[in-house]
Amino acid sequence: MTLWLVATSVSYGLLMLLDPLVYTFIAYNLNVSSVHLGICNALWSIFYITSMLFLGSLADEGKARLLMVIASASMIFSWLSMLNLNTITAFISYSLHAISIAATNLALNTVVFENVDSQNWGRTLLFMRTIGYIVRGSSFIILASMNMLGVSLIQQVTILVLLVSTVLVPSFSLISERSVYRLYKLVRELSFYVKASTSILYIDKPSVAQGVFDKVWYGYSNSRISENKILASITIITCVNDYVLALLPLMIKNIINLKMLWIAYGVTSIVSIIAVLMLKDVESSSKGLALSLILVRSIILLTGINIIKDIYTLTLYLILTSTLYLVIDVTLYNMYTSSTGGYRSSLYHTLRELGSIIGSIVGGIMLAIGMNTYMGLAIMLTAFSIFLLI
After folding, report:
1. Which residue positions does the secretion signal occupy (predicted)?
2. By CB neighbour count within 10 A (0-12 exposed, 13-18 middle, 19+ buried), where does 306 fall?
3. Which pLDDT does position 291 carry in this prediction?
């Protein structure tokens, strides 16, 4: 495995670590209200979406190294903001982290789509996720075990790894793998039109002609899901996810301390990615797999929250929900990139984050109104996300 792939995967893992690390640090140590914490989460998502929209064109142009430079610079300013710690500087630092992880995410996808054979895209992205989740999980456990409940050291290590990754990111050839894959998709689709048109040879036998056309054409079209449906589905799924989980730290703050929370996050990251690797064909883009997993996870997400009583039940709940969400995200993303030929990956990530914003805000409002209303809307949103993929 090439060095650039490992280095960029580690940098992404450290950035994934810093997301909940900084967020929970703010929640537990700066005495912020739920309103302030909600604003903090919303700012992160807004900066992430804005970064994806502005930087997405760089990814489509294959400028991975420039994206890594932007990620490194953002992380440096994020670290500097935390040196004079208060609520405002912490919010600024967290928002700058969003720019860094957005740029890194786009750069990772770019180097994969430009340097890896299209048949191995799903497997390579899964490998990068695996490295990232192991780095994230083990770092959580190490920091909590050593009572290092700060963020400055991890920020410095992340900056160093990002700079190394920037140097190691490969350059691209004029004819990209994505362009070749797109040409392949066009030729393949044209071949289905040609094959379907052979039914005209049986014009004197209408029933045979219809059978030939149906076998070729509908066999092809039924295996596809439109890009818009995939995007809408991941938006709503993520909306439901944050509808519940964004409020979780506030629910458990009085029974779970920060050290135990980080250990739970760490164990969850490692166990969830191991579970994903054990699942057959997780790198595939199966519609049936996506539908069944969305249903199972929604049941656990909405009913399992009542079992959280201590660190063990919290970890079990997080493992189940995180593992299933990870598999769903991998599956839907592979379906999307297969449909787009690797282009417009920023749109997928942007809409996923939009779902996070909506879920966090609406969840807080609905929970304030009442639990029945809160759960009712969650069920409706889940049903709609499944309907989109049918």
Report:
1. none
2. exposed
3. 77
Q: Which residues contact 56 (CB under 8 A, 6 or more apart)?
A: 106, 344, 345, 346, 347, 350
Residue 194's pLDDT band (cuts 50, 70, 90): very low
Q: Tokens standing for 268?
A: 């969850």
Token couple for 298 = 């929604």
- Residue 272: its pLDDT value, please? 80
Instruction: Report the Cα–Cα distance between both ends of the chain, in Å, rounded.
Output: 38
Place of tokens 């439901």: 240
Cβ-count burial 64-99 (b if 16+ within 10 Å, e if not): bbbbbbbbbbbbbebbebbeebeeeebbbbbbbbbb
Is there a contact between 62 and 110 (Cβ–Cβ < 8 Å)?
Answer: yes
The CATH code of domain 3-172+224-389 reads 1.20.1250.20
Comparing C-alpha atoms, which of 280, 284, 327 is closest to residue 130? Answer: 327
Mean pLDDT for all residues in the chain: 78
CA separation for the pair 297, 83 (Å, rounded): 40
Question: Domain coordinates of the chain in residue numbers?
Answer: 3-172+224-389, 177-221
Contact indicator for 46, 357 with CB cutoff of 8 Å: yes
Closest CA to 82 of 152, 156, 24: 152
What gap in Å lies between CA 45 and CA 50, rounded to an integer?
Answer: 8
Residue 176 near residue 113 (C-beta atoms within 8 A): yes
User: Residue 336's CB: how many other CB atoms inside 10 A?
Assistant: 22
Residues 6+ apart with CB under 8 A from 23: 40, 41, 44, 94, 249
